[in-house]
Amino acid sequence: SAKATDAYESARRKVANFINAADSREIIFTRNATEAINLVAYSWGLSNLKQGDEIILTVAEHHSAIVPWQFVSQKTGAVLKYVGLTKEEVPDIEQLKGLLSSKTKIVVVHHVSNVLGSMLPIEEVVSCANKVGAKVLVDACQSVPHMPVDVQKLGADFLVASSHKMCGPTGVGFLHGKFEILSSMEPFLGGGEMIADVFEDKSTYAEPPSRFEAGTPAIGEAIGLGVAIDYLSHFGMQRIHEYEKVLGSYLYESLLSVPNVRIYGPAPSASDHRAPLCSFNVENVHPTDIAEILDLQHGIAIRSGHHCAQILHRTLGINASARASLHFYNTKEEVDAFIHGLKATIDFLTSHH
Amino acid sequence: MASAAATSAPLRLLSSSPLSRPLLSRPHLLILSRPVSFQRLAARSAASPTPSTSSSAPDPSPVDPAQLPPALRDIIALFQSVPDERTRYKQLLAYAARLPPMDPALKSDANRVRGCVSQVWVHAAPEAEAPGCVSFQADSDAQLTKGLAALLVLGLSGAPARDVAMVPVEFIELLGIRQSLSPSRNSGLLNMINLMKLKALEIAAGQEVTGGQEIRQERTETPAVEKEEPQFEAFGGQVHESSEAERPEEEEFEEEPAAVVEGNGSLGGGRKERIRDSLERGLSPVELKIEDISYQHSGHAGVAGSDGETHFNVRVVSKEFEGKSMLKRHRAVYDLLQDELKSGLHALSIDAKTPSEV
């Protein structure tokens, strides 16, 4: 058990190093990124927000970044404000800046969008938010696995990510929070490990991170995440990022060559970063049909649906989309196979008339 | 950002770019104490016919095709004769193309099938030319889903509403497409069938006033019961709006002598005894248990004006049921209780067994 504790705490240090946190006590293990956001919403949000305060989000946020704040809004009377998209289909940073005011208490934004593939200028957002005294929570699920992320450089107050998106096991994720903020926060879940002393009528609480890790943790999973980080570090996130940039562009260009395809989000040339994924639709063909035939007849797995971003889909005027996404282990040949399979699938679905 | 490869590199440059060499070299060793090997997943391609096709007999399933509406039987036979998966999909798409367009006004929330990744609507209405029968309309924005909906619409439209309500959902197995559909598609298909059955049930119950036979679901199936509530109101409404043919029964209903409502109905209008008599004469049961559960329904608009004796649980064990399907057993019970059904008995929950099944 001492070894397990060592391995668990060593995993914590690995996460801290991986994102260049100032201190490993700033890393809190959670079940996933969703739970990490809920932790901030319940522990920080409920105590610090009141009637009339404002929470800024974008329409492109994942449901996990939106729903916990809806709970907070219902309980405290704080108001949610959404930033829309520019015509390049990226969140409108100018609009965001315009929405910031003394009423803004927190800005919740993604680093990289899981649908649009676009990246937000977090440092700029943090700098503007700080001027009005607002905190910033960054959903880094799509950035941490694909590029070097330096939380001290970004400067956000909170950052969340998810193990299973970075070659780790499911069942673990983490919250990074600046130590002073975490120290000022109420606990999230109560129980063993997070206490200092327990009396009948009240208890005193442990320091972060333990304060926010009640009960027996997902020990094996956290250790697994540590190993995943070792694996990724073996390649180096910068190298992974560069490979994926080129492969991602190849995917985008190849997909554009398929007739009647509409890809969402900015073109690679229009911004300085586009994630290696493409959410798309084919005219007159439903994305779920495409995904199903691609899977069952060509052995290629893509996702279809709303990708936990219903608000974004409604904003784009669609019900659902298909999404092909890549990671550093994918190859050019696999992209070619996808495009070939996609064309055959479209033929199959449109030719039966 | 570091000096990255040009994000808008023309494709021809890529041959000498990082992509010409995958990031991971093969064979690939993780830096663990033990190497991990990767297993290529074989594509479930249509090139090789899947084993579970027409050559093999359908799985020994409990579904008796004879129990299914004839149109559905035909469709099942068709699917079973299709030689491979790819053709099965083509067949589904062909059905999708055949489906008559659905009136846009019917694409309401009440007609929406839940739990589908695509949008699916199903509408049911009594068949105008065939009393007691139901006709369906459906649509979906995804072709495969539309194909499944079409299959169900074509297979179940025109059948007696009662029969549709009792169709065993396991018939999907007979189609031989379950393994060809993703899990979410399968659950969507199940939801579609269940919604159609529910709507057929409501239509069947709506014909109750004429003494038609009603299938009453167990109270413990809460979702169905919650949906059943409006049908009692509809029933109540129908008492007033019913057609000429129904009027004699309606008058009889209103003239029912007010009976004292008792928990077990034994001191009431005597319906329980009459049920007992009829079933004993007709089925010579070795076991017969009748329970008046009308008090559970006393709040409904449909039973307003009656004084209990509207809903009964019946458990009957009889040799007469041997060799008979559940449908036939229930029919046998209803046939014996026609008079009661015409005079205010709303629903029976029937547990019908043979002595050897007990």
UniProtKB/TrEMBL annotation, chain A:
One GO process term, biological-process aspect: cysteine metabolic process
Signal peptide start-end: none
Domain of life: Eukaryota
InterPro entries for this protein: Aminotrans_V_dom, Cys_dSase_SufS, PyrdxlP-dep_Trfase, PyrdxlP-dep_Trfase_major, PyrdxlP-dep_Trfase_small
Enzyme Commission number, as recorded: 2.8.1.7
SUPFAM superfamilies: PLP-dependent transferases
MF GO annotations: cysteine desulfurase activity; pyridoxal phosphate binding
Cofactor list: pyridoxal 5'-phosphate
Keywords: Pyridoxal phosphate, Transferase
Short name of one Pfam family: Aminotran_5
Domain Aminotransferase class V, residue spans: 2-338
Catalytic class of the enzyme: transferase
Reactions that this protein is recorded to catalyse: (sulfur carrier)-H + L-cysteine = (sulfur carrier)-SH + L-alanine
Entry-linked PANTHER family: CYSTEINE DESULFURASE, CYSTEINE DESULFURASE 1, CHLOROPLASTIC
Name the record gives this protein: cysteine desulfurase
